[in-house]
Amino acid sequence: MHKDKENWKLLIEINQDKCDFCGCCVGVCPEDAIELKEAQIGIIESECTNCSKCVWSCPVEAIKFNKDELKKQTVVMDI
Amino acid sequence: MKENYDVIVVGAGPAGSMAARFAAEKGVSVLMLEKDRDVGYPVRCGEAVSKTSLEKFITPDERWINARTNKLSFIAPNDKEVTIEFKETAYILERRIFDYELAKTAVAKGAEVLTRAYVNGLLFADGKVSGVKYEHRGEQKNASAKIVIAADGVESRVGRWAGLKTCVDFREMESCYQVTATGLELNDETCYFYFGRETAPEGYLWVFPKGNNSANIGIGISGLSGKKKSAQKYLDEFLAKKYPGVSALTAIAGGVPCSITLEKLTAPGIMLAGDAARQVNPLSGGGIASGMTGGSIAGRIAAEAIKKNDLTYISSYENEWREKVGKRHEIYDRIKNGIYGFKDEKFNSLAESFLKVPFEKRSLNQLFKAALINNPGLLLDIAKVFIGR
Ligand SMILES: Cc1cc2nc3c(=O)[nH]c(=O)nc-3n(C[C@H](O)[C@H](O)[C@H](O)COP(=O)(O)OP(=O)(O)OC[C@H]3O[C@@H](n4cnc5c(N)ncnc54)[C@H](O)[C@@H]3O)c2cc1C
Ligand code: SF4
Ligand code: SF4
Fold this sequence. Notes:
heterodimer, A: 79 residues, alpha+beta, Alpha-Beta Plaits, two-stranded antiparallel ribbon, 28% helix, 15% strand, B: 389 residues, alpha/beta, FAD/NAD(P)-binding domain, D-Amino Acid Oxidase, Chain A, domain 2, 3 domains, eight-stranded mixed sheet, 11 helices, 33% helix, globular, binds flavin-adenine dinucleotide, binds iron/sulfur cluster
């Protein structure tokens, strides 16, 4: 997927305290943008496209799409 | 620990252990790497497996069999319950011990195992995969192999690094949550399945008895349904309604890829097995037996390729899998998609019509026959599997 590098911002956040390290999100990520060790998880920012498939698949709502951040960004871009 | 092996297996689940065992059995050197501290833990599984499939690989042992079930109970959205006698036994396992014992059978054949070994990259040489990079207790290491078997489960990334497309469409990923609850009054011979939009959209909710008043109570819903409400929320609501105040001794999340098997299971120097290859039965979500089957074929063929000194031979794995299991999964997948489309009324009317059949005459085939009267579109596919033979 094409990413406009300058304006692009990571809007996906994983809450480590909620996460169960089950790997469901890793399996659906089209970009191979999630790294999962035994009990450590992180988004590989350079690969992620904010597509949100991981958010919808997480059984315990440990991943969020940051809407507030998106709103802030939209304002900036409107100017 | 050596730095050179004939075969390196990534992941010590049922598929990995069988791959390691069937390769080692043929006399090649095998290393199995597992990222977790323990083989078999944490358990992300309902632990149900058919007796016949299991016994192809290991002799049943009371230490890892919690219950023997021979009845299936389907509960429709309107609470109508249809119970049928299953022709064979389904074991409910204690996978914490079972996976461990499976890994031991691989070691008994000569395979080496290393836990806390997180594979984070592949090595390439001469246009093929030639080994793995891994982190072991904070140290980065390399190990080379003629063939790498990636049995790294639902979260598989290893295949991707070799250019294989292992990503699961989120609509085909069952997003799961399960508790192992105790203090329940249950019939230990019955596995319960709940269906319906409100209970488990595009999936089902299960209650599998584990003996001693305990059970695995879990749910799987499609990633698409998870957009509205998470698996955990659905299960919490069910528990509050059906088993209020129950104590959960374990609670886990998980994902089950419910799709047909990947088209390509091999690339030069690498093979995929188990959940990583998407070898789960897409209708039931069961992947223990099919993962063991996939792993055993992969392990044997890897060893044969090495003995023949012809590594291109590994591509015969794709055909063998498809002939033995894959084709059947393609039909199951179409049935699953048909059932996903069922409205609650359809489940209800199905249960009602089925309840008219006397208990002794009820069978899984009969149930599917009833399902197809309700949905003629499914007729052809189901007929092939259940009636044609
Ligand atoms: C909630 C739930 C309920 C289920 N219920 C059932 C059921 O009742 N019956 C049934 O048959 N199936 C069930 N399944 C499916 C079943 O659990 C899996 O299909 C089965 O475990 C697959 O085996 P596997 O060996 O392919 O993968 P796994 O058992 O997942 O093993 C993969 C291993 O690879 C390791 N690994 C991953 N990445 C790396 C890496 N980079 N480096 C090193 N190691 C790595 C993991 O830690 C893991 O131990 C269920 C699944 C879930 C989530
Ligand atoms: S799906 Fe959710 S719980 Fe599972 S590893 Fe991803 S963020 Fe964690
Ligand atoms: S938002 Fe999409 S690309 Fe980013 S981590 Fe999630 S699934 Fe992967």
